[in-house]
Amino acid sequence: MRHVRRLCLVLGDQLSLDLASLAGLEPEQDTVLLAEVMEEASHVPHHPQKITLIFSAMRHFAEALRQRGFAVQYVTLDDPDNSGSLPGELLRWQALLKPDELHLTECGDWRLEQSLKDSGLPIQWHADGRFFCSRAQFARWADGKQQLRMEFFYREMRRTHSVLLNGDGSPVGGAWNFDEENRKALPKGTAAPYPKGFSTDVITREVLTLVAERFSTHYGALDTFDYPVTHGDAQALWEYFLDFGLPAFGDYQDAMASDEPYLFHARISAALNIGLLDVRTLCSDVESAYWAGRIPINAAEGFIRQLLGWREYVRGVYWLKMPGYADGNVFANSRPLPEFYWTARTRMNCMRQAIGQSLKHAYAHHIQRLMVTGNFALLAGIAPSQICDWYLAIYMDAFDWVELPNTLGMVMHADGGYLGSKPYCASGQYIKRMSDYCRGCAYKVSESTTEDACPFNALYWHFVMRHGDLLRGNQRMGMIYKNLERMPAAKQQALWQRGQALLAKLDAGESL
Ligand code: FAD
Ligand code: SF4
What we know:
Helix content: 40-55%
Shape: globular
Bound molecules: flavin-adenine dinucleotide, iron/sulfur cluster
CATH superfamily of the largest domain: DNA Cyclobutane Dipyrimidine Photolyase, subunit A, domain 3
CATH class of the largest domain: Mainly Alpha
Number of helices: 22
Order of helices and strands: EEHHEHEHEHHHHHHHHHHHHHHHHHH
Largest sheet: 5 strands, parallel
Distance between the termini: 63 Å
Number of domains: 3
Strand content: under 5%
Oligomer: single chain
Number of strands: 5
């Protein structure tokens, strides 16, 4: 048998030829290992399209490596010798190949990284260079700060990486943040770009068959799979967005519309998170489009803020605060996740739309996740671990480092305000302003306490009232509590009772 110098395990979300642990690999003496394992595919009931994406992209990546002359060991899910876990596969292949060294790039999931560290294998770890900010750099930035704020981190990142700056170091356009210009509702008749889909090849069709057989109990459609699974297709999706989505991204970033799952969003998060796209190239393409006069500043800054700001920030918080972060539950919520999160069987049109498209496409855009499904879970007091598992399972782009801080921190405020300064709680009025959902709803958004009143309205005030002790002192909630105090006692009581009735229905297992 050929002597193996290095064995390099590449995970399903590390499919980049520039991966740190692949640097310096010699095709003649080193081996790359990729393994499809049941533990990773099923520790939450991942959407079947997400499993398809990862397995298919892994198989395509293995082909790309082989074409470059690398020796690749690829373990399929149905391989009879498959041990079912990544530590198990690394142990097995170490015993079989007897390499001099084992190499691995740091993981995107604390649980997995810990289990590999606990395996006792002499792994040489590499920092993940696919981010602007390393774990250590973020820890240095956060050191000594009582509370972290994304905005300050983001400005620091703009300066450090010279992104959208004038020659004198000031921000292009005269401000660091054009968030105020990212909140337009979609005018009636505005056409969103036609979604760009990708047809399946032989490899993807084989994976689709495997997933249909082995994961038939997982929620979500499989026949609508049209995601890119190669670097080339991911690049085509990105270029399509640069031409057709990005110019209006800034204006309509927060808008929602019935039967429009993507609007002007890029839909690139899954490809980016698994390594099919490179974040530095994306930011530089957006900046070039701005300097070339192809997009306005609110689109350029708005998009770069998501990548250079939010994405790097949530990753930093995750690695700084894990494993304790996952246990955060400042409101002591314990309500189970309602069944309709898995079926979309609800009379609330906004929830039906957001959940329905998530089941169909494993996708919802940021405002749907934050202000519809997330907002409902916050107002209804859902147990953070249950709603976090739902987001981790249902979305194509969901990996623990990015899903957990967004859900537990940003949406549920369960970390007590470490990641964000206030809960993003809102009544039905917000959804009405930013979408056309209320027009097609069985509930009336203009009502709060009647039987047919929008559930978000009473639940919003119920949330505000029941957490007064924790939130009244929060400066950014001051106006809300002033409005509550000005409200007649009878109105407050009616809202409380309606809130109680809605929560009782959830507790009885009924849909709303
Ligand atoms: P666009 O709207 O076109 O945005 C461009 C890119 O910016 C995205 O592709 C993404 O890479 C990045 N981005 C934007 N916002 C965030 C953010 N808050 N955190 C990290 N990256 C961001 N994103 C994930 O990639 N994985 C997740 O598991 C995930 N879970 C989320 C859970 C909740 C409750 C919320 C509120 C947001 C979550 N996000 C997550 C962030 C965001 O919703 C998605 O990145 C975005 O919807 C992906 O679609 P897109 O590519 O069309 O994004
Ligand atoms: Fe959602 Fe309420 Fe509007 Fe219905 S009325 S779509 S439940 S916000």
